[in-house]
Design a protein that fits this description.
By secondary structure, this protein is of the alpha+beta class. It has helices spanning about 55-65, 70-75, 120-135, 170-175, 180-190, 195-200, 205-225, 230-245, 255-265, 265-270, 270-275, 285-300, 300-305, 320-330, 340-345, 365-380; strands spanning about 5-10, 35, 45, 80-90, 95, 100, 105, 110-115, 350-355, 360-365.
């Protein structure tokens, strides 16, 4: 077999996205390793020899903390940050080489990853901002660090000495029917096939149950990703593959993606641009707009970074669900560019259903337009 077949581009172990080639840090003090950042917020360093584990991990953590050594030393693994690694990495070609050899040259490099938990990352950035202010004006007080975002609901504490459960389909089905999210989360930590079994439950002819299952999967993934974002990332990739399979109907897949991405936008939010690929299919337009709107409610900046202007013409779509969801989406990202188009729908009283936490809620297009215009107006103040 040709050796070229064993080469792949390196990926982030947290979100699964491909990462760029590491480069020299801007401030290179005692730095020995090249560094990089993933879109999900993780940072990484490259150890081309794979023999400097301790130094590389320390440098990665300090880099994640904006070069604040004192702050980095106070952090605890898992409680404050997660680590990961990609082995068999060749820094020269920026490839992972499974054969560990390129034309007689040994490949032993490692990419070390660190991802701070959301609130820790925010504190680190604010500390650096305060330090920058002090550097310019020594009389400026540091003060308290306000507005730390709420930490996602934690995963249940598990006894490390417990006997892991071998999860079966009927166990997952029963837990899903009971809405037992704690149990499903613990199943995920015990047996990595749990999320795959949950994905199969989306193939349900009952639309309401599909939406409810998508919501449950989203809640489970939000909590699992606190400690093991890798297995959630694998699910995200499987869902996108299922959506792209022309031979299969993507029942519940896009809805589930919307729940996962909005549940942890700090890790998976960058995937939202891929949802736009399914706007060309009428059978998935409503689900895509719902997913984008849900994410926009948490992180409007992520939607702003996509070509969202292509959605404007959907305000004249014949389906009320499409018009209403586009209006809601544009309002949540405060798209003042669409004010005139939205005002034209102020008297559109056609009804539509929007799913929230697995439950159907009835709205009118005009109601959503009014809400959107209010959001845009407040954003302009």
């Amino acid at each position: 077999m040709n050796k070229q077949q064993f080469k792949t581009e390196p990926w982030c172990p947290f979100c699964g996205q491909k990462v760029g080639k590491p480069s020299d840090a801007i401030e290179r003090k005692m730095t020995e390793f090249k560094v990089g950042r993933c879109q999900c917020g993780a940072v990484y360093t490259s150890d081309p020899t794979g023999q400097n584990v301790g130094a590389a991990i320390v440098e990665t953590l300090v880099f994640a903390c904006d070069s604040n050594w004192d702050f980095a030393w106070d952090l605890l693994p898992e409680d404050d940050y997660l680590t990961g690694r990609v082995e068999d990495y060749d820094e020269q070609t920026h490839q992972v080489v499974e054969t560990r050899n390129i034309d007689g040259r040994a490949v032993r490099g490692v990419l070390y990853f660190v991802r701070l938990h959301t609130e820790i990352s925010d504190i680190s950035k604010r500390v650096k901002e305060k330090q920058d202010v002090l550097a310019k004006n020594a009389t400026t007080p540091v003060g308290d660090i306000p507005n730390i975002p709420e930490k996602p609901e934690p995963a249940p504490a598990l006894d490390p000495k417990r006997k892991k459960v071998r999860v079966k389909k009927n166990m997952v089905t029963e837990a899903r029917n009971n809405g037992d999210i704690d149990l499903l989360v613990s199943y995920c930590f015990d047996d990595k096939k749990t999320l795959r079994l949950m994905q199969r439950l989306l193939y349900d002819v009952d639309e309401g149950r599909r939406w409810e299952t998508a919501w449950i999967i989203g809640k489970v993934c939000t909590r699992v990703s606190e400690k093991e974002p890798g297995q959630v990332s694998e699910l995200v990739h499987r869902l996108f593959e299922a959506c792209s399979d022309s031979a299969a109907a993507p029942w519940g897949m896009i809805e589930t993606l919307g729940e996962i991405l909005s549940g942890r936008p700090d890790i998976f939010g960058a995937f939202c641009r891929h949802l736009l690929n399914y706007m060309g299919d009428e059978s998935t337009q409503v689900q895509v707009l719902w997913a984008l709107s849900k994410l926009a409610g948490k992180r409007p900046d992520l939607i702003r970074d996509t070509p969202f202007l292509t959605l404007f013409h959907f305000l004249t779509h014949p389906k009320a669900e499409v018009r209403g969801l586009v209006a809601q989406l544009l309002g949540r990202i405060r798209a003042n560019e669409a004010t005139m188009q939205l005002m034209a729908l102020s008297d559109d009283n056609e009804k539509l259903i929007i799913w929230n936490a697995g439950k159907a809620e009835e709205h009118t297009v005009s109601e959503l337009v009014k809400e959107a215009l209010t959001n845009i107006s407040n954003g302009d103040k």
